[in-house]
Specification:
Elements (H helix, E strand, L loop, with lengths): L3 E5 L3 H13 L3 E5 L2 H11 L3 E4 L8 H9 L8 E6 L4 H9 L4 E4 L4 H12 L4
């Protein structure tokens, strides 16, 4: 079974393009359009990796990341912050809350796929 990636982003165009990109790479993909829905899907579906926007309705990405990292049952889930928030302070906060990587928008599709593969595929 292919690895499952959850995209949590309220910008539908970004979600659609990233969904397409990752499906083309062979991943199983789900999408949530706000932080609350994202957290619910993380808890119910247990994806292998979450691509998480920061600025979203209901719960922001920092809150979702923190909630996932505080739940021992979800400890193995990889989190990549994928956001327009590119200042060093925000990046440091995301990584301090437990994100495995931080990619700023606009992003290179090659960089995104490379980061996802690095986090999901065991080293050769």
């Amino acid at each position: 079974m292919s690895q499952h990636i959850l995209i949590v982003d309220d910008e539908k165009n970004i979600a659609i393009s990233v969904d397409y990109l990752l499906r083309r790479e062979g991943y199983r993909v789900s999408v949530a359009h706000d932080g609350e829905e994202g957290l619910r899907l993380i808890r119910s579906d247990r994806p292998d990796l979450v691509l998480l926007d920061i600025m979203m309705p209901k719960l922001n990405g920092f809150q979702v990341c923190e909630a996932v990292r505080q739940d021992p049952a979800l400890a193995g889930i990889r989190i990549v912050m994928l956001t327009a928030k590119g200042r060093d302070a925000e990046k440091e906060k995301g990584l301090a809350l437990g994100a495995d990587a931080y990619i700023t928008k606009p992003f290179s599709t090659r960089e995104l796929v490379s980061q996802v593969k690095a986090l999901l595929e065991p080293p050769a």
